[in-house]
Specification:
two-stranded antiparallel ribbon
Amino acid sequence: MGTVIYSMSVSLDGFIAGPNGEIDWAAPDEELMRFHNEQTRELGAHLCGRRLYENMLPWEIAEETRSDSQQLEFARLWKVIPKVVFSSTLEKVEGNARLAKGGVAEEVAQLKERSDKNVSVGGAGFASTLAEMNLIDEYRFFLSPVVLGGGTRYFPALDRRIVLKLAETRTFGSGVIYVRYWRV
């Protein structure tokens, strides 16, 4: 059975995007991109909302727009991962994606049952829904040495606490610290 993972870059003050949605501060260097590629190889599916789905669409044509070998490797890995998009406004999706047919809990249960590979969850808004439903097994973040002062939070406001157990840390040359927690 796969593990449901929420993984994002996070500022020191807990934001995944700045006040105007900016994420330029989180661009990975070559070492971090290699690590992202290693983690992407472990994925059997990806769940996301409309905004992240649309933000990730350029990876579908990366061979035409990028030349960096690590980014091209990510694009090749990303394109083959089945994606389930939750949206009330999209009528169709492209690439290896499909619109969700059922509710969040049902889709997560089906994906976990079908594969031993991990399921990633993307987008803070969508991940907050899964966090509230207690469906995220692992929280991974890449703590970046920047303070944004506001923006989109990694963790939503919750009515209850989530107790976590430290599973792994790793420090990169750029000063980014990877932290992985399991839900207790």
